[in-house]
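Objective 1b: paired records.
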Amino acid sequence: MTRPQATSELLLEDESVRVTRFDFAPGAETGWHKHGMDYVITAVTDCPMLLEEPGGSRESMVPAGMAYKRAIGVEHNVINNGDKPMSFVEIELKKGI
């Protein structure tokens, strides 16, 4: 099954952080990727996610305005599992800060 791609917009990058906004149509995905930095996600909209991970898939709901942090090395594909557009801002934390 082919899914539409999420879109991303780099909002800020300097020596300490990279801030990117991700927008997903219903059913859109990031594609498989591995995070090279610790990161924080803040949901702009409610984010009903399907997370495909090496060990299987799981569902996660991140309400608008809420945030979570994950460590370097996370590997997954993030999919909008809802019927409305979803958006979040990702803040990657560069080492040495």
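Objective 1b, second protein:
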Amino acid sequence: MGDTDNYTDLRGSRLTSGLSDEQVNALAGISFCRKLDDNEKLFQEGETDDALYVITSGKMAVTRNVGGGEEVTLHILQAGDLAGEMGFVGGRPHSASMRAIGSPTVCSFNRADFEALIDNDPWLVYRVMKNIVQVGHDILHRMNAQFVEMSNYISHQHGRY
């Protein structure tokens, strides 16, 4: 995994939509951006951390352990998507694992460093939190559409695959 330019990676992400260059610089100052290796795990299901992960290029597989050492892919996250929001906001354990597809670039920052920005620029914090909700909603919308498509396929096939 290699380091990348935090400002450039974050500036192109949906997380920084509506932020000034100065605000993106402040966010870049608390961020760690890196290129992952193919199949590298970003985090494991059940682990707890307080980081927000921003996929700035490439794709990541969201997977769940289904027993017997097997994992199933629930969704593919793309550049612009986020991961770890619930741990970042509320300290909850990860409900799934994240695995690199190819060599994506991911930027992360932790809750304490982010909260420290409140005193200097509360609007930065507000806009980022608003963007987290919007991106999370977009991901949920895509997942719901895939679920409906799969359900329709199964019902039209009368349960045959």
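The CA atoms of residues 16 and 24 lie 7 Å apart. The beta strands are 2-3, 32-35, 41-43, 51-67, 70-78, 82-83, 97-110.
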